[in-house]
Design a protein that fits this description.
It is built from four helices and no strands. By secondary structure, the protein is mainly alpha-helical.
């Protein structure tokens, strides 16, 4: 992790870490203005000039696409749950 001027480790929030990584920035090159000397998302936006790009792994999908992906990953169940638990005809 990048170190701060006090010799400690600069902590980045997950949101700031993603923005810095997506923008290919060095967090030590940005002057932090957040509380306790932390780098804020506003600091990253000030350097980039606009909202940082979204990582490619976040792809917009319709609810139908999501349901189809979930259904494809589900394991088919033989019979009903009651029969597997030793119960008959609940």
């Amino acid at each position: 992790m990048p170190s701060d001027p006090a010799g400690g480790t600069r902590l980045l929030s997950p949101n700031v870490r993603r923005a810095v990584t997506a923008s290919h920035l060095d967090p030590t090159a940005i002057v932090p203005t957040g509380g306790r000397g932390r780098l804020s998302i506003a600091d990253v936006i000030a350097v980039v000039g606009d909202t940082p790009p979204r990582p490619e792994r976040f792809v917009e999908a319709s609810p139908l696409d999501i349901r189809q992906r979930i259904a494809a990953r589900m394991v088919p169940v033989e019979g009903n749950v009651g029969s597997r638990l030793g119960r008959s005809g609940c």
